[in-house]
Amino acid sequence: MSSDFGEGCFWVLVGFALIVGCLVFHEELLPPVTQFGVEWDYGIFWHDLLLTNKTGHDLWDVELELIFYTEDGASLERSKLWGKWSNGETKRISVPAYSYSKVNLRGNAEIREQEEVKQVKIRAGWIFYR
Fold first, then answer.
1. I need a labelling partner for 14 at 20 to 30 A (CA). Which of 27, 37, 81, 115 fits?
2. What does the alpha-carbon distance between residue 32 and residue 105 come to, in Å, rounded to a whole number?
3. Cβ 82 vs Cβ 101: under 8 Å
4. Cα separation of 126 and 68, whole Å?
5. Do residues 59 and 85 touch, judged by C-beta distance below 8 A?
6. Which pTM does this prediction carry?
7. pLDDT tens across 74-94, in order?
8. Contact 49/32 with Cβ under 8 angstroms?
9. What SS3 class is residue 82?
10. What does CATH list as the number for 33-127?
């Protein structure tokens, strides 16, 4: 009888761990939003990264972290907050005029469809060759 009780407790704990794990990691299981267009507008003292929303959705309450890497390995971070980023809209992010080899983009936003609000992660990265 004692081993039945111990085995029952084991399976209860396993079930509990699975439920908690699903709740904790559910957000990470959603596919990230990755569809963005990128171009450079080069200037003498400043370059502008032209970042276009190509997700097919308007994004709301957008929080972005961009990391720009120079060819010599230095990095520069920019944070951006936008209430709305319309589908097809291009945002301009200004950075000092260096030769950037890579940009990483991470963030969060909402997609609002009718009565449903979906929290999404934003993930993208680009490597530039000159």
1. 27
2. 11
3. no
4. 10
5. yes
6. 0.75
7. 999 999 999 999 999 999 999
8. no
9. strand
10. 2.60.40
